[in-house]
Every structure is written in C-alpha cells, then in structure tokens.
Amino acid sequence: MPSTQIIGIVDDDEDLPAALSSLVRSLGYGAECFSSASALLARKDLDTFSCVISDIHMPVMDGIALAQKLGEIAADLPVILMTGRNEEGLERKAYAAGAICFMPKPFSFDDLSRSLDKALAAKG
C-alpha cells in the first residue's frame, strides 16, 4: 500500500523539498525532507525509506556521492537523482553512481510518478 511507503527527499534549496513532498504525498506516499546528504545519512534507520529523491548539485556532498554511498550502505534503496543543470555527461554519471532514474528540472507530475513507480518496482 503506497501510504506506508516513505520517500526521502534531499535538496539544499529551501522551497523545492516542500513542493516535492506535496507532490509525493498527492501520489499517496509519505515524505521526509532533508537539507543535506549528511542529514539523510545520519539516520540510522534508512530502511524506513522506500526510495530517496536527491538533487545532484548540493554543497559538501552532492547527489552523485550520496547515491554511491547509499549503494554501499543500503544497496536495495533506490535513488532518483534530479538536477536543474544541463551538463554534458551528468545523466551518465548519475546512472554510473547507482541512480535508478534521472530527472532534469523542471519535471512534470507524470515524470515524478513514472520515476517513483520504476524505483519502487525495483525495490520489489
């Protein structure tokens, strides 16, 4: 049942996590927001999350490094990476780091829904 699935949202932007969590909740999932990769990683109960959605460009630890770290410590946790920057090779780097989906910003409600469906199906 989707209502029991919690999506972790990581973004250093002040406004995006609230907006994204609202979209996630409208799809029937729970959401918990983090302002940095280290704040998410400080959680001892990462198995609470069904999926993590993270921005790529953040200070200290970016989304690419976060996806790699989650692959080491929570290999079954799917990661969706998003970015507002159009950099050559960035999508390839995201997938190489272990991301299940890559979403360029701005993305649509349907893009988010499809990415969550894919990520949650991968988790099993």
From TrEMBL:
The keyword rRNA-binding does not apply. Residues 6-120 form the Response regulatory domain. Keywords: Phosphoprotein. It holds the Pfam family Response_reg. The modification 4-aspartylphosphate is found at residue 55. Coiled coil: none annotated. GO terms for biological process: phosphorelay signal transduction system. It comes from the Bacteria. The keyword Phosphoprotein applies. PANTHER family: CHEMOTAXIS TWO-COMPONENT RESPONSE REGULATOR, STRESS RESPONSE REGULATOR PROTEIN 1. This is Response regulator receiver domain-containing protein.
